[in-house]
Write a structure and sequence with these properties.
Layout: H1 2-59, E1 63-68, H2 73-87, H3 96-100, E2 106-112, E3 115-125, E4 128-136, H4 145-159, E5 164-170, H5 174-179, E6 183-184, E7 189-191, E8 194-202
Parallel strand pairs: 4-5
Antiparallel strand pairs: 1-2, 2-3, 3-4, 5-8, 6-8, 7-8
């Protein structure tokens, strides 16, 4: 009888311990799930805040496009933005020679108030212009900023007698350039370690 009682007691204790462990696991899972939901919610809030901010500035005309002077404070801010969006994801940084070679380029930036959210630049070669270093801050991509910036630059280049714009487009950006009426005129090739294609647009 005593042996049976001991077995029952041990069984009850094990059941209690298992139940306690199970409860702890459930509680931890609930915390993890809640944390994930909070993180997801905050991400949505931040995204919506960026959208609302963009729409607000769009309607209040606090967006502007300007030509940037090389080595000015705005240039260094633009360079940092480009490095974050274009180079760091590839494990690369701009070198002194890269920066020096930009001295003669036409550089344009898209401002949201005082913040640069997009940029592109051109090497002028007679009546042709090579477009390069096209970048938009990730949280503002997909809102027409890149298109607005390009259309402004295209008009400026046309006024200065440019008849063709060409670029080395990243393969994953081909749809963006096609919407701007660029055409592919080369086979795929590697540049900075990723696939590119040459594209061009004739200005009429």
């Amino acid at each position: 009888m005593r042996r049976t009682s001991r077995i029952v007691c041990v069984s009850v204790l094990l059941h209690v311990e298992n139940y306690t462990l199970y409860s702890i696991i459930l509680a931890n899972l609930a915390i993890v799930k809640a944390s994930f939901l909070v993180f997801h919610l905050m991400s949505l809030i931040r995204a919506r805040k960026n959208i609302c901010t963009f729409v607000y500035y769009k309607f209040t005309k606090s967006l502007s496009i300007s030509k940037i002077i090389y080595a000015s404070p705005q240039y260094w801010a633009l360079l940092r933005m480009r490095e974050i969006e274009l180079r760091l994801p590839l494990g690369m940084r701009y070198q002194k020679l890269d920066i020096k070679n930009e001295a003669e380029e036409w550089i344009y930036a898209y401002f949201l108030q005082d913040r640069i959210v997009a940029s592109c630049q051109f090497i002028i070669e007679g009546d042709k212009a090579k477009m390069r270093q096209v970048a938009t801050v990730k949280t503002y991509q997909g809102r027409g900023i890149g298109k607005d910036l390009f259309m402004h630059c295209e008009e400026e280049l046309r006024k200065h007698g440019i008849k063709e714009i060409y670029c080395h487009a990243r393969k994953n950006a081909i749809p963006f350039y096609e919407k701007l009426n660029f055409e592919i005129y080369s086979d795929e090739f590697d540049e900075v370690g990723i696939p590119h294609l040459k594209m061009k647009k004739t200005l009429v």
